[in-house]
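## retry 2 of 3
previous attempt timed out at serialization; input unchanged, resubmitting
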Amino acid sequence: MLLFFGYDFALKVVIDEKVGLNSFNWLFFYIHSVSIYMEFETYGRVSIGVIKSDRRAIVIDSGIDENDIRKVLNKLNEEGYTVDGVYLTHSHSDHSGGAFFAVKRGINVYSSRIEADLIMNPSILNVMISGFYNYEFARSKFVTPERSKILYVENQVNFGNESVKVIDLRGHTLGQVGYQADEIMFAGDSLFSIETLEKHPIPYVLDVPMYLQTLERLKSFTGKIIVSHMGLLEDNLKTINFNIDRIKEIKDVFWDISSNGRTIDEVIRAILNRFNSNRHVLNYFLDATTIKSIIFSYGIISYRDGTLMVEPKR
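## retry succeeded, writing output
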């Protein structure tokens, strides 16, 4: 859980503390003579954020099912906070899977227009990942979140005495957004931690050129960045460059393999083998999506003898 509020953060002190079964990182910031704090906790595979102001709160992302979001909402209720809304970074089920529970609790859930439409029609997410309606994935909560009523988020979220900016972070998905409260940004899956990319070498990216543009824009952000799968980044620029370099590595393999023309299937197989990505059927579809985005963005495609051929753009 992430709590961030206040203005002009200047000083940070980090204290690690274990509370029950959950691990917290307490980050203290000081404004003039007023002490504020950010409390961060990772539930399961993703981070859920909370911004508090004047006994009101908003929640960022909802986890993969009702379990994590229930804990967050119950805790806020016990502390006497009114939740003004749940704001999603994007439609993937590990971020939106608990949205239905918030709606059931009478809390509005918001996302960008594209991502909201996908959550309200979750079978389209299945098709986007597979390229067809995959009945195997239809039974998986990791692919298909429960259908929920989602409202469209505007460019800014106002609640209590706070104003939170909605930041365009497209690339990983077509409509991903981040939420910036002063000098802290909850960036969703707009970039991945170095640890995540070492474990999963090929990031899932629908639009590789847009992903790279987003990463270049993030270089100018000098505040704290929270990513969904590892929490607070220790070094923004190092992590951003690691993401850019990983895409460049995949592109370089593509260019080397296809220099004299290869089938798309051959290119995909070679890149998956190069990055040791033969893990699971779902991982194949996820990783192949990024590879295809690279192929169709930086290659010349032709049809020959019942298959698609590719060579690099010169």
